[in-house]
Amino acid sequence: MRHFGCHAATDPAAPSGALLHLPSGESLPVLDVCRARPGAARLAFLAACGAARTSERLSDAAIPITGAFLLAGFPTAVGTLREIDSTHADHVTRDFYRRAAEEPAHGPALAAHHSVRALRERMPQRPHVRAAYVHAGA
What is the dihedral of CA 80, 74, 22, 100, to 10 degrees? Predict the structure, then answer.
């Protein structure tokens, strides 16, 4: 499993210009992610603002960061479509990992689904908060 809690950016002029801004201050470009090999890792969890967002100008050709992890060989990835509040991200992340550990046979897609539903139950009047999270892959 690979977990990234950081910021993400897209480049409207370049379909493969997305990158993660790592906490160390370094950047991880989407092309480097595509070239990586996950080894035994089965999941990439990207608590990064906009990790699943594509370029507005080149939406049909862009490689979102979550998609780059799939191209690299990760069977599944969780990301966000836009900026997320760190407090909500922390709740969703902790809930996701708790659910994934308690019932590993159900898989990350169901853990993500239930984590977002729990956020919906806590904050029914704020759909924009929960709508940011997406699961990609198997």
Answer: 60
pLDDT at 94: 93
Q: How many residues does the chain have?
A: 138
> How confident is the model over 68-80, as pLDDT tens digits?
888 889 999 998 8
Helix (H) or strand (E) holding 20: strand 19-21
Identity at 57, one-letter amino acid code: R
Say how far apart CA 126 and CA 130 lie, in whole Å. Answer: 7
For residue 75, give the DSSP letter: S
Helix, strand or coil for residue 137? strand
pLDDT for 60 equals: 55
Please tell me the pTM assigned to this model.
0.82
Q: How many CB atoms lie within 10 A of CB 101?
A: 9
